[in-house]
Design goal:
By secondary structure, this protein is an all-alpha fold. The protein has helices spanning 2-24, 30-37, 41-69, 71-90, 95-123, 126-157, 166-169, 171-185, 206-225, 233-258, 273-303, 308-326, 333-349, 354-380, 388-421, 423-447, 455-460. The protein is globular and about 60 Å long.
Amino acid sequence: MTTRRWAALPVLLVAVFVTTLDFFVANLAVPSIRAGLRAGDAAVQFVVAGYGLAYAAGLITSGRLGDLYGHRRMFRAGLALFTLASAGCGLAGDAAWLVAARVAQGVAAALLAPQVLTLLGELYRGADRATAFRWYGTAVGLAGVGGQVIGGALVATDPLGLGWRACFLVNVPIGAAALAMAGRLLPRPLPAPRAAPRTPRAGLDLVGTGLVTAGQVAIVLPLIEGREQGWPPWAWWCLAASGPMLAAFVRRQRLLAASGRTPLLDLGVFADRAFAWGLVAVALLFGTSAGLSFVLALYLQDGLGLDPLAAGAVCTALNAGFFAASLRPGRFGAPVLLLGLCLLYDVVARAAPPYQVAMALLVVGAGMGLIMSPLLSSVLSAVRPERAGATAGVLGTVQETGGVLGCTITGTVFFGTLDGGGWRPATLAALSVLVAGAVGVLAHAVLRPRAPVTPDDREATRPQAPPELPVCPESA
């Protein structure tokens, strides 16, 4: 059983890697997509935004679906849909087709993400869980910081003459192989007790689903598209409407819980202070990472005049630092991240050559690698196991929304300064925002409330190997 559990880990990590990667990989392909499909500005924007919007809006509901119908089953369904949607993107004949396929990809990614986190929590305990979440953080971080590198390499090398389509079609064989292995390697559930039949009272809250989805769309859509369109009135109306919709969602969840029915989201997860404060740090970290990727793509290519392949080569330093440090994460990640961003600020201020930019990025990547998996693990361990689905959905939503906010705020500062100051002042202004985000991550590392010690934590400190873990009956 132990060998089988570890054999399942690569399947879960591949799924989270490709779904995270696809949020970034299309950025470098946008010019080729525009030319190849003769797509307009709005369509090209939604090639990127449609994925992120569907992803962010579906995470909380997907976590609940996993609780209801089994995390293993929902994982396989999401992986199958993601693979088919990737094929649809690669075979798109026009812009509308591509946008629709990208939205389907986002829905599939939302279906996958909470199941991966929940299955990791069910499959591993004690020291094994810490190891599994360390690899999860590594996979997420490498996909985030390496998305533009991989996208640029695929567009530049043009494998099999596929052009931009390779960015999506590469997911098809990977997804098909992972799906085949998931059927054999992910543990099957034990038979459900006859005394606990599923009743309509424990079903999916459709009204709550509509409210939370509409509320999240009302936040994420204007953040993605508002800046591109000059902040039109509809963007502000959406943001204003999001508050009442989410407030109505929270009220409904409280009423359902008070009446003995099962809410879509267990609001009790926010009673754990370590979890709630950890979400703030996660949002800051992912916002800093996404904002940095956005600024680098513009500064290296348009500011320094590098081609996509050369820009990707510089960004490889970020990946290398992240990967090397993530193998042995530690408590000094936040200070190293802040130091790396300050070094990057200095390099840009001095108009240093690209190799010095790469050296600063090496330190930034090391900081992210040191902090990513310990932060995610501490957040997830702060709540009780029976709230795993809700926790995973909320955490995924915060990651995605944090990334969107990071890009939006950084982009707004960057372009606002670019109009009157040029590339270097604009990049420095954007880096100042990222430094502030790193200061927030450091403040959390110093001041965060500690999660209560659990039996799993005590088990992790024992020298002997952890005992075998029985398969959870709810994971189908």
